[in-house]
């Protein structure tokens, strides 16, 4: 696993994105020319019609690679450098963990406090993120901690990286990528659900016209997920489970079926019996967080539908030949 500079990641991701979009356009133009659809006689279809978004993001045909906090093994978590690198590597989903600022802005940050990953003025960049305004957070450097913690992967370009807001993330990537968004919650509803659904709606990511499960919302809190469901029933939801050392019970799975399309257990709690029990209920299984290739293969062999990893490039190298994600959908299963 090599280290990659933020600028290099950004340049490559931008290049990769352009190539991907150009490729999709070429396929679409070819399809249009073969079917005769999409333009009138003598009309330049490529300039008069845009390709349908759901053709650009079809259902993945292999277990999905979910970039945990971006490609966070090689770049500072929840920065555009980590997200861009994940996309450049070919991850299917980029994960965002959400926190809410004092002035109601959703930002991508794993911890409820800033101390581990932020550097900058103490007043603005230490303590609980919920006590800071977005203006204060903009003073924080979210990359230097990575260079301190991982000198072997340090890069001067990581110094000074900003905390991204969810709105900035959606502005940057639009409908070109898949998002796997965690509503962080210490218990019941978090206050993040309504602003999140509002942002996703404004970006055209809720109404089902954006490709197969382009956005998945995940949470450890069933209350939070149920609220998201009440606000946007179209959004697919995944129920996370804390590490227990025990397999999840069938009764728990029966509860989850009522509102979610999948489960996100800790990898150590996943075996073939759990995958079978989940699949029998049409629930996808996406374990977290797996960086060891041997463990990746074990999980792929027991039939998981994808997994969270800090090293998407490693998982992409392991998943070839493994089964596609769960074919049944709750809709097909009649719920
Ligand atoms: O969301 C899946 C996994 O990321 C849960 O653990 O603590 O990394 O958010 P955490
Ligand atoms: Ca998470």
* Overall pLDDT metric: 84
| Oligomerization state | single chain
Report the end-to-end length measured between terminal Cα atoms: 42 Å
Find the CATH topology: TIM Barrel
Return residue spans where pLDDT drops below 50 for at least 5 consecutive residues. 1-55
Assigned CATH architecture = Alpha-Beta Barrel
Q: Domains counted in the coordinates: how many?
A: 1
List the ligand species. Answer: SN-glycerol-3-phosphate, calcium ion
Assigned CATH class: Alpha Beta
Gross morphology:
globular
Structural class: alpha/beta
**What Rg do the Cα atoms give?**
20 Å
Q: Please provide the ordered H/E string of secondary-structure elements.
A: HHHEHEEHHHHEHEHEHEHEHEH
The total of beta strands comes to 9
Beta-strand residue percentage:
5-15%
Largest sheet: 9 strands, mixed
Number of helices: 14
Question: Superfamily at the CATH H level?
Answer: Phosphatidylinositol (PI) phosphodiesterase
Helix content: 25-40%
């Amino acid at each position: 696993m090599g280290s990659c500079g933020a600028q290099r990641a950004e340049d490559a991701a931008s290049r990769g994105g352009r190539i991907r979009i150009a490729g999709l356009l070429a396929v679409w133009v070819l399809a249009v020319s073969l079917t005769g659809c999409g333009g009138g006689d003598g009309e330049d279809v490529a300039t008069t019609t845009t390709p349908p978004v759901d053709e650009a993001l079809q259902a993945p045909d292999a277990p999905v690679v979910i970039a945990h906090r971006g490609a966070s093994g090689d770049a500072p978590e929840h920065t555009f450098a980590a997200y861009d690198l994940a996309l450049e590597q070919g991850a299917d989903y980029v994960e965002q963990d959400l926190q809410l600022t004092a002035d109601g802005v959703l930002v991508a940050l794993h911890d409820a406090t800033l101390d581990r990953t932020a550097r900058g003025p103490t007043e603005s960049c230490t303590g609980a993120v919920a006590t800071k305004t977005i203006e204060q957070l903009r003073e924080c450097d979210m990359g230097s901690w990575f260079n301190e913690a991982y000198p072997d992967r340090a890069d001067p370009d990581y110094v000074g990286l900003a905390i991204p807001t969810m709105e900035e993330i959606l502005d940057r990537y639009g409908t070109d990528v898949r998002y796997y968004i965690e509503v962080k919650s210490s218990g019941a509803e978090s206050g993040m659900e309504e602003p999140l659904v509002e942002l996703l709606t404004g970006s055209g990511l809720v109404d089902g016209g954006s490709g197969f499960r382009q956005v998945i919302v995940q949470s450890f809190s069933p209350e939070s997920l149920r609220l998201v469901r009440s606000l946007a029933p179209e959004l697919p939801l995944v129920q996370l489970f804390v590490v227990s050392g025990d397999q999840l019970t069938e009764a728990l799975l029966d509860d989850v079926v009522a509102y979610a399309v999948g489960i996100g257990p800790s990898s150590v709690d996943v075996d073939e019996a759990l995958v079978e029990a989940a699949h029998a209920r049409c629930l996808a299984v996406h374990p977290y967080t797996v960086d060891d290739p041997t463990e990746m293969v074990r999980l792929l062999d027991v039939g998981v539908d994808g997994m969270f990893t800090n090293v998407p490039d490693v998982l992409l190298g392991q998943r070839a030949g493994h089964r596609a994600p769960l074919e049944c959908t709750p809709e097909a299963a009649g719920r």
